[in-house]
Design goal:
74 residues; mainly alpha
Length: 74
């Protein structure tokens, strides 16, 4: 992999990581206040990760059915 190709992939990943970070920040803060704030935040974060994992699995399955095979790029 050349340096230009690597930088192109990093440039594509920056907005994706940024949006995930914003989404996780909103999820952690949406638990409300009180003594159980950390517990609520971890519960919300766990639910968000589970939903993202299921959505990713569904996207990979749909792409596989359409004939596009996912592969590792390194």
């Amino acid at each position: 992999m050349t340096l230009a190709a690597f930088l192109a992939e990093v440039w594509i990943m920056i907005p994706v990581v940024f949006l995930f970070a914003i989404g996780f920040g909103i999820t952690v803060q949406s638990g409300g206040g009180g003594n159980l704030r950390v517990t609520n935040a971890m519960g919300n974060l766990t639910k968000t990760i589970a939903v993202l994992a299921v959505c990713l699995a569904l996207v990979i399955a749909a792409q596989s059915f359409a004939g596009y095979r996912m592969g590792l790029n390194w």
